[in-house]
Write a structure and sequence with these properties.
By secondary structure, the chain is mostly helical. The chain is built from 9 helices and no strands. α1 packs across α8. The longest helix is centred in the last third of the chain and has 50 residues. The chain starts with a helix and ends in an 8-residue tail after the last helix. It catalyses: iodide(out) + 2 Na(+)(out) = iodide(in) + 2 Na(+)(in). Belongs to the sodium:solute symporter (SSF) (TC 2.A.21) family. It is a multi-pass membrane protein.
Length: 224
């Protein structure tokens, strides 16, 4: 299956809209001039866009492409990973984040300096940058590989295009642009996932048949 004119148009529109959000927040009024505005969105964003933005950070191309492949090969035992999120998200949300918020700090690295010293802050910052450079390489490579498979786009041209667009709206629009772009992209991702589920289930013969086929192949598993 290859891209049609409609598919290419939608792909281009997604890139243009993502860049436009950054340009809007960069050019609309006297904004993005202070650290509070650029890095913290002036601390006046609503909970829903922030929540959707955080959700987008967990739903990268690695998860969109990798998790279905993992479950297809090894079964549904992957669901147990979700149990760790109950602790992994609730504990920071109710213990760490309120402290950072009350201290009105820009990042967790500021807290490291307040709690320990500047050496610990620098070490933590360098460690995070090193990890993110490696991670972002994978995150950009995964969708570029998918695009290369269905469109014939040059692999590294796709990597550079997506990287430049993301850098553009982040640099120009600050955190507000990042949050609203994440909201837009989250809605697109969920629409795409829903479309795959609906179309796929209909072609197979319904969700009940999908479940039966998975059981027959031994893909429905508990905790092993």
């Amino acid at each position: 299956m290859e891209f049609t004119v409609i598919d290419y148009s939608i792909f281009a529109l997604l890139l243009v809209l993502s860049s436009a959000i950054g340009l809007f927040y960069a050019l609309s009024g006297d904004r993005q001039r202070t650290v509070q505005e650029f890095l913290l969105a002036n601390r006046n964003m609503g909970f829903l866009p922030v929540a959707l933005s955080l959700l987008a950070t967990f739903q990268s191309a690695v998860a969109i492409l990798g998790v279905p492949a993992e479950i297809y090969r090894f079964g549904t035992e992957y669901w147990f990973l979700g149990c760790s999120y109950l602790l992994g998200l609730l504990i920071p949300a109710h213990i760490f984040i309120p402290i950072f918020y009350r201290l009105r700090i820009t990042s967790t690295y500021e807290y490291l300096e307040l709690r320990f010293n500047k050496t610990v802050r620098v070490f933590g910052t360098v460690t995070f940058i090193f990890q993110m450079v490696i991670y972002m390489g994978v995150v950009l490579y995964a969708p570029a590989l998918a695009l290369n498979a269905v469109t014939g786009f040059d692999l590294w041209s796709a990597v550079l295009t997506m990287g430049l667009v993301c850098t553009l709206y982040t640099t120009l629009g600050g955190l507000k642009a990042v949050i609203w772009t994440d909201v837009f992209q989250t809605l697109v991702m969920f629409a795409g996932q829903l479309a795959v589920i609906v179309v796929g289930a209909r072609r197979v013969g319904g969700m009940a048949r999908v479940w039966r086929l998975a059981e027959q192949e031994g893909k429905i598993s508990g905790i092993e």
